[in-house]
Amino acid sequence: MSKKAVLVVSFGTIDIEVLKKSIESAENSFKVAFPEYDVHRAFTSQEVIKKLAEHSDLQVDGVGEALKKLAAAGYTEVHIQPLSIVSDKTYTHSKEYITSLIRSKEKEFKKMTVGRPLLLSLGLKGHPDDYHIAIEAMKTQLPELGSENAVVFMCNGSNQLEYATLQLKLADAGIKNAFVYTAEGYPTFEGVLRQLKEIKAREVVLIPFVLASSEHLLKYLAGDNVDSAKSRLEAAGYKVSVCRTGLGENPAIQAIYVQHLKDALLALEMRHGQRKGPAHA
Asked: If you compute the radius of gyration of the chain from its CA atoms, what whole number of angstroms results?
């Protein structure tokens, strides 16, 4: 019997508690969904891998090293699901690297594919609407929105069209008092401030739109420093509360990543002529 593995790839975190709640929890969902596969972990950040090894007994491989070990262990089928939010530079570089490995390791792995990130497909031409599905999954984390309260999502990254699209998709879903900004680009925090003023909001819930909500990120988002998002909102006169959980802790978000890998596996089967039907990878 051939040995099969799922490699779950994320940026990583050095916060052990957050790792367990978000990344490990997401990995466990793959173990349930793919009982015939062995589930393995890899991080894309070499800095996180190094710091984690220095400050704990956890040893995590990078993607290349993980694949080498799987090949050496006799695995012939390896499928990779990145826990990326969008197709940003990290995801794109990782997929390009993995694609090159797929081509160079054809003799070692008979089957290999990569799932898409959380937000990619727009719901056109028979493809699923990743945004609508993710928004539905996030509703369990949202407070009831009235005329005077709002939700602000902080996205990690810069100038990602996916986050501007997320803002439009939130409006399409009828969630009017929800706004999106990126840490280093567009949509901007200043734009969110203008929109909050326009709707005359009085209370704001800050939600990190990231996989793992680390202490470092929460300090940036809601620390006592004057330039944190929480401090700036309070200075503008808003009552502010903070959601401290990452998306990786949400079972409905975990299920989306699982489905994206299932889509990739179906697409692989169709390319090999094993099955007919819609593929969304």
From this structure: 20
- Is 127 a known ligand-binding residue? no
Same fold, 3-120+250-271 and 130-247: yes
Q: How sure is the predictor about 206, in pLDDT bands with cuts at 50, 70 and 90?
A: very high
Q: How far apart (Å, rounded) are the C-alpha atoms in residues 276 and 274? A: 7
Q: What is the pLDDT of residues 216-257, one digit of tens each?
A: 888 888 888 999 999 999 999 999 999 999 999 999 999 999
3 state SS of 207: strand
3-120+250-271: CATH, from 3.40.50.1460, 3.40.50.1400, 3.50.50.60, 3.10.20.30: 3.40.50.1400
Domain boundaries, the chain: 3-120+250-271, 130-247
Fold of 130-247: Rossmann fold (3.40.50)
Helical H segments across 151-211, by residue range: 161-172, 189-199
273, with CB counted inside 10 A (0-12, 13-18, 19+), is exposed
- DSSP alpha helix (H) spans, 124-202: 130-138, 161-172, 189-199
What pLDDT does 257 receive?
Answer: 98
Average pLDDT over residues 13-36: 96
Instruction: Check the annotation: does 184 bind a ligand.
Output: yes
- pLDDT above 70: residue 275: no
Task: State residue 280's pLDDT score.
Answer: 58
Catalogue the E-assigned strands of the chain.
3-10, 38-43, 61-62, 75-82, 111-114, 149-155, 178-182, 203-209, 239-242
